[in-house]
Structures are given as C-alpha cells and as structure tokens.
Amino acid sequence: SPVMEELLHLHDHALMVVFLISTLVLYIMLAMISTKLTNKFILDSQEIEIIWTVLPAVILILIALPSLRILYLMDEINDPHLTIKAVGHQWYWSYEYTDYEDLGFDTYMIPTQDLAPGQFRLLEADHRMVVPVESPLRVLVTAEDVLHSWAVPALGVKMDAVPGRLNQTAFITFRPGIFYGQCSEICGAN
Amino acid sequence: EEEEEEEGFRLLGILDVQNTPCSRDAILHGAGGSVTAGLLHFLATSRVRRSFDVGFAGFMLTTLGSWLYCRMNNAKLRVQQRMIQDGIKNQIVYEGTSRDPANKPEAGTPSGPS
Predict the structure, then answer these.
(1) Is the pTM of this model over 0.90?
(2) Of the candidates B14, B60, B75, which has its C-beta nearest A15's C-beta?
C-alpha cells in the first residue's frame, strides 16, 4: 500500500543515518586507539562540547521531519468506500461487512497438519477477508475477550484490538494479491 | 543462490547497498569525495593523520549530501508517478461522460439534431 511504501522509504533513510553514525563511531574508536596524544589534565573543551550537542540535535531533526510527515499522512481522512469490522477472539478473528448486507464470518488459522503443499505455516486461514483493490477502506478493530492486534505488514497496518473499545484504521491497496498477517498482541493462555 | 543474490551486500551488516534506492550512488560519491578531500589536504599540508580525518569528514558530508539529493528527487518522482496513475485511472473512469476533461463542449456547436 502507499503508506507501507512511505514507511519503507523512511526506514531506508533512517538506516542510512544509522550507518553514517556507526561509521563515525568506528572511526573515532580507531583514531583513539591509535593516537599517541594523551592529556591527563584536560578539564573542558568548548568546541567539542558544542559539536557533540549540536550534531545529535541535527541528526534528530533529520530523522524526525520525514517521520512526522508520515505520521500525519497516516491519519488523513480518506472517505472510505467500505467499512469492515474485525473482532478478535481467542483464538480467531471474525469479520463483519455491514455496509450493504449483513455478512459476518469467522476465520481460523489452518493448523500445520492440515496445510496443502505450498501454503504458509501459521499464516493461512480458512476464510480470508476479501477487500476491493484501489478502494480506500476502513477497518474497525475491537476484541471480545483479551487484547489482540490486527496487523498486515504488507499494507503497513497494525491496530490494537481492545475489549470495549473501537479502534479505526484505514488503508488502500493498489496491487491485487494475498496479504498475510498475524495477531500482534499476546493473547494466549500461557 | 537466487535468494542470496536478492539479499545483496550489506555494509557493516546493516545497509543493503544493492536493494536500497540511492544508497549505492551515495556510498560511491562518498568514497570519491573522501579520497579527493583527503588527498587535497595531504598535498597542501603533508599531514597524514589530519588528512585521514579530513577525508573521513569528506566521506560523511558527500554521502549525506548525495543521499539527500537523490532521495528528494526520488520522492518528487514518486509523487509525479502517483499523480499520473490517478490521472490515468480518472481518465478511464470518466471517458465519454460529461466529467471527461478532454470532452469540453464548443460554443458554436448545435446541441439538437441537425
């Protein structure tokens, strides 16, 4: 989805900044190991202190600006064409399509021993949530018993399912296909 | 083997240079900037250690500058790509209807049957 593409770009940008910082630290370590200069009586140094105060602030701004941009992009109102309710249970999800007709179904994970060749372990489900492509969608997420979390990494979507609370998330996908997700909040008995 | 080729080479174990857009160009520009800056400083001052420091600073600045420039152009291209995709989609949807921007009625054209 476009949001996931933007998240990937932010990740690449942050990774490059992290790479440069790591390179700087490695270089400083090598320089300090190999130097012959020593000074037992140094008390302060205005120049280096200014550098190591200003530089981290600049780095934080460099990472924060694209991050905030995506944060507000994800919260934009997108006038959804379809609303789906996802309700978390122990241990299955139920979906309700109530915009046009009353349609609801439960979906269970296919156990490992029942998988057909080529299917993915711990990801396949018996009834998939089907959504139209190129349509902005809204998913209302809640839970019946304990905390769950509805997540589809390929779409850049994750929303906690809290009992007694209705959380909203939205996404749009431009590529048809099957997108997998797993419950992302501890919800087991042990 | 195909999976190893797709994974790519990771600098310091974290930066996938082959599969991250703009990263290869940024690192190469940084390497060139580093060598240039260090060499020029050494030729001017004959100080080896300080030339290494200057070369490293040149690497950081050149890599960061090249990265930011390439990413900004990349972002502009992505925005243009999305606008073109939306335009194509809308053109297909509205083609032949009154909302088609290419179907503007002319002033002297008679509207009734001739």
Answers:
(1) no
(2) B14
